[in-house]
Design goal:
Layout: E1 7-13, E2 26-31, H1 37-45, E3 63-68, E4 72-76, H2 87-103, E5 107-115, H3 122-133, E6 139-143, H4 150-163, E7 171-174, H5 183-194
This protein binds guanosine-5'-diphosphate and magnesium ion (MG).
Length: 197
């Protein structure tokens, strides 16, 4: 992913669809509704509206799979924690995310997005534990960094580190879809992981 030559939405998986089966490496993005997943994917891929961003949180209840350069897949997992979703629906989506983490053979890294302005929620803690339990080392992306001063960023970084019980070897990256801060660091992680492909 040195240069984004092509990027397209290749697959949309609903609640009862089959999950993606790939040999090319996958990188997945998880996080609460409205945390900025679609904006991050657009920023990484230098596309304005490839991943649909919305003012209406809770709408993207699918796993969206983007093929990049015919070499890598970025996987946008359904947002969780949306208050207006019924408990039953939430449980179904949780199971789908968990099933994806457990069964994907091509999955290399799971990025967990949290809003840098807020303390992580119980759902975020559940998510990071699923990531760890399925054998991945979570990379935490703290979104909307542009909304905080440098001082506030430093403070929230330690709040988030503590709330998610960040362990040795786990990374926290501040990111902004507005300033693109953190973009290169995320792309570099993907590149490093992809070496040898
Ligand atoms: N200021 C700022 N706003 C952001 C950023 N990322 C996302 N947003 C806004 O947050 C809202 C939700 O973003 P979206 O990407 O749709 O979140 P998703 O539900 O996680 O896919 C939208 O109004 C975005 O414009 C960011 O880095 N900075
Ligand atoms: Mg989205």
């Amino acid at each position: 992913m040195n240069k984004i030559k092509s990027a397209e939405l290749e697959q949309v998986c609903g609640i009862s669809s089959a999950l993606p089966v790939h040999t090319l490496p996958e990188y997945a993005f998880a996080g609460r509704s409205n945390v900025g997943k679609s904006s991050l994917i657009n920023a990484l891929l230098e596309r304005k509206r490839l991943a649909r961003t919305s003012q209406d949180p809770g709408k993207t209840q699918t796993i969206n799979v983007y093929n990049v350069n015919k070499a890598v897949y970025l996987v946008d997992l359904p947002g969780y924690g949306y208050a207006r979703t019924s408990r039953e629906t939430r449980a179904k989506w949780g199971k789908m995310i968990e099933r994806y983490l457990r069964t994907s053979e091509a999955l290399r890294t799971v990025f967990l997005l949290v809003d840098m302005r807020h303390e992580p929620t119980a759902d975020d803690r559940t998510m990071i534990d699923w990531i760890r339990e399925t054998g991945y080392t979570p990379v935490v992306i703290m979104t909307k960094a542009d909304k905080l001063s440098k001082n506030e960023q430093a403070k929230m970084k330690s709040v988030i580190r503590k709330a998610l019980s960040i362990r040795e070897g786990e990374t926290l990256i501040p990111f902004s879809a507005v300033t693109k801060a953190g973009r290169e660091e995320i792309l570099e992680l993907i590149r490093e992981n992809n070496e040898g492909e």
